[in-house]
Predict the 3D structure of the following.
Amino acid sequence: MARIRIAAPDTAEPGEIIELKALIQHPMESGFRRGSRGEVIPRDIITTFECLYDGEVVFEAEFFPAVSANPFLTFHTKATQTGTLEFRWTHQDGEIWSQTHALTVG
Amino acid sequence: MTAIIKPDSINRRTLLSAGAGAILVSAIPGRAAAASEDMLAAQRELFGDRQIREGRVALKLPPIAENGFSVPLTVDVESPMTDADHVTRIAVFSPRNPLPDVARFTLGPRAGRAGVSTRIRLGGTQAILAIAEMNDGTLWSGSAETVVTLAACVVL
Amino acid sequence: MIRTVVVGCWLALTAACGEAGPARDVSSMAPSPLKSGYEFLTPETQALQTDAFANPGFLWVDRGAVLFADAREGSPACASCHEANGEALQGVAAHYPAVDETSGRLLNLEGRINTCRERHQKRDRLDYESDDLLALTAYVAGLSRGAPIAASVGGPAAKYAERGRDYFYTRRGQFNISCNQCHNDYWGQKLRGDTISQGHGNGFPAYRLEWQSIGSLHRRFRDCDAGVRAEPLEYGSDTYVALELYLASRAEGLLIETPAVRR
């Protein structure tokens, strides 16, 4: 279970550029750290983030171990029609966490 | 920091302090100015040998970070973000982290604005580089440096 | 990393012991004016704390709100007694740690939450530093965000405050230094890249960049103890709870910032 925080407007004017923020709880273990007995702590990161607007990808991010724990993103999209924004994170092993937000345009 | 050491007291503590000095030297700016081979290789892998021009990319990092665990980074690319003229990709590189790749962003006219913020890890003082690829294939870059200070009594 | 500890703390040692000079009455010097750890952060880290969206501590506060409302058969939710959204608990964390009337023991918020679970919810105690206990504690402390610290150190609490004070002023570890030597005598000065804070607990549980997570005040104590190369005490130990009370008395009037962001 991952905890997610989304900041997105509920309404927008047609053509308006809206700011979107997304935060997810994840340690983003880099794979470069060692435990107390000197053993390498295996890499455990989210590798991809996508924002879909009515199913179409409007923004995508690829994360490497240099992205901080609990990855945070701010980005933008142009409000075109009333619809659903989906925020989707994919783990290196394929697990997906997602949350949606309804946007009313007009 | 060495000011508190009496000149005649050359003992274990002084030696430890010299060790501290050596660590601090690695944190001073300047050394980070040179792009690492790894970073250049990562750039080439993504963009080949195409020309990269400086400009149009504004990279914002704090001048000083109190540690390298979570440093706020903002990239803004000058672009109308229309169907005819827009940014398609932004790649962020580090010359001093264990891996040169930091993050990549894919966007297009539906983004409306080519502005992205996130938080990144810095394994020491360095100049981070962002390269933006436009839909006409041109490449633009911007960079910014952060001094990462060393924490006291770090227990990891 | 061991080297880092050695070097960093050796400086503390030198700073603390090397300048006997003009009289500084170590035993009675509480910091003045009171400054929250917030004031020793870079503007960017301060901005992260005050950003009600981006402050990662709120990931735990959000979880705490869900747990607070979690009612089960035969086991009421926290909200069943303390009102929805914890309204009845606003400002309460500012009075903790406090002596539990039933047992006479000093309890911090974590201890109070676990005591409530056992007595009123018939649930198991949550492990100290577990994600759920951190989440509940951060949520409950967050209900008092902005409230001035006002813990009672009189009556039955007096002996605990004294015990905490003793811990604060006792030299320990291989470096043989005490809390007050950094946090009373040298706050505001540099220890490597850091500015030494006054050592207040008003932001905890806090999201520490170094931990890349939220953590309890006891985790912070354990880091400090390990930093001076003393044996850290157990999470939730009576002595750490007493130290928490002494710190609260020392920070009276300082505003609660949970979930704060710290280095």
In short: The domain at 4-31+43-105 of chain A is CATH 2.60.40.10 (Immunoglobulin-like). The longest strand of chain A covers residues 96-105. Chain A touches chain B at residues 17-18, 30, 32-33, 53, 56-69, 71-78, 80 (CB under 8 Å).
